[in-house]
Amino acid sequence: MAYLVLYSLTLISLFLYSFTLVDLNLTFFNHPFWELFREKVIYIGWFRRDLSWILYLVLILLLFLFNWFFTNRYKKFNPMIIALLVSIALLMSYPFLSHDFFNYLFDARILTFYHKSPYLFTALDFPADAWTRFMHWTHRTYPYGPTFLIISLIPSFLAGSKFILNYFSFKLMFFLFYFLAVYALNKLNKKWAIFFATHPLVIVEGLINSHNDLIGVCLSILGGYFILKNQNLKGRAIFLFSAGIKYITAPFVFLSKNNKSINTIIFALACLVLVYLKITSAFHAWYALSLLVFIPFFPNLISKLNIFFIGLLMSYYPYIRIGEWSSQIEDTIIFWFLIINVIYLAVPVIWSRIKLTRR
Questions:
Q1: Reduced DSSP (H G I as helix, E B as strand, rest coil) percent helix, strand, coil of the chain, to 5
Q2: What is the DSSP letter of 319?
Q3: Cα radius of gyration (the chain)
Q4: Is residue 8 part of a domain?
Q5: pLDDT band of 359, cuts 50, 70, 90
Q6: How far apart are CA 250 and CA 270, in angstroms?
Q7: DSSP collapsed to 3 states, 85-136
Q8: Containing structural domain, residue 309
Q9: Minimal CA–CA distance to 314: which of 200, 214, 217?
Q10: CA separation for the pair 108, 160 (Å, rounded)
């Protein structure tokens, strides 16, 4: 119980920290308490970046520590209770490391409020809309597949034109898919469910920053659940539906319960896609969420990639500490953490082979 309390306090601290980089043009409430809180946290995020980085570093390391602790003592904890704690603590957290979430809101708004197609119209086509004040990438049309647009129409329609209701509804949508994935994994293996539920990459990039990659991953995990339950048709249909968000999950449709060679090829292909994205455009930390789909197929391998995952979240150093995006610094951080992780994976294999040759 004490560990759950400490974990909850860490999550609440992360929730509060997420507002340190709130957009200066965005006001959630016109209330004195909110204004006072906003003033204090903005000072840390925008004007005390040295302190902000230390707080971020401590929180991320604590998240990985708890992930390790809960995963190794999984028999003592209920994954659904942990997922509920995460959801309660972070439901209204601010996406402090990305503005994509606000684009999701407006993309759906173009259809539900303006009755136009986001594939044809951009946010710039509606300059009088107050939401464009705190948006980035207002010049682009809808870049995703139809699946996410269909899903996002539900919270947009229910919330109407009120921004705070849209913010809450979309956040709730992400947490519901997260809860669904934890539930599916728990049906397969309790340890897998706890690993996913407490994973820092899921919490930061999927729940706080609310990248739609998380929804694709959660759907794919559900597809994997049906594959492992010998319901192949249902599982592959869900994989295809997931691929309609971002096409990176399309190869997952070939994942198999019994053919490990095929699964290995698909995992290697997923890694190559990430490398390709890095070479041709830019590699963002949330892209690696797709690797978590392989938890039911390669649980030991995925659990040993946390050094790399730490590097991904540490790559935000230039933005948090310096106040600017620097792909060179980000790439350097990710590269060295990846190298360390590869060495960590390779040393036991090399050592075991050395011992075999000595016999």
A1: 75, 0, 25
A2: I
A3: 21
A4: no
A5: low
A6: 10
A7: HHHHHHCCCCCCCCCHHHHHHHHHHHHHCCCCCCCCCCHHHCCCCHHHHHCC
A8: 298-359
A9: 200
A10: 11
Q: Answer for the pair 337, 310: CB distance below 8 angstroms, yes or no.
A: yes
Kindly state whether residue 179 falls inside one of the protein's structural domains. no
Average confidence (pLDDT) over 80-107: 94
Which residues lie closer than 8 Å to 99 by C-beta, 6 or more apart? Answer: 23, 134, 135, 136, 137
Global confidence as pTM: 0.93
Contacts of 274 (CB under 8 A, 6+ apart): 283, 287, 288, 290
In this prediction, residues 38-43 reach a mean pLDDT of: 90
CA distance 101 to 93: 12
Q: Rounded to whole angstroms, what are the CA distances from 147 to 58, 103, 233, 247?
A: 37, 16, 19, 11
Q: How many Å apart are CA 4 and CA 154, to the nearest integer?
A: 33
Strands (E), 235-294: none
Q: How far apart are CA 102 and CA 137, in angstroms?
A: 10
* pLDDT tens digit sequence for 280-307: 777 889 999 999 999 999 999 999 999 9
- DSSP 8-state class, residue 324: S
150-169: average pLDDT: 93
H-type alpha helices, 99-198: 100-112, 146-159, 163-188, 190-197
- Sign, CA dihedral 280-121-136-210, equals negative
Domain count, the chain: 1
Cα 152 to Cα 133: distance, rounded to the nearest angstrom: 21
Place of tokens 């399309």: 250
Angle between the 2-17 and 49-72 helix axes, to the nearest 10 degrees?
Answer: 150
> Whose structure tokens read 């913010």?
167
State the average pLDDT over residues 247-255.
Answer: 87
- Look at residue 29 and give its three-state secondary structure: coil
39 is a domain residue: no
Q: Is residue 333 part of a domain?
A: yes
115: left (phi over 0), alpha (psi -120 to 50) or beta: left
Q: Rounded distance, CA 221 to CA 202, Å?
A: 13
3-state secondary structure of 20: helix
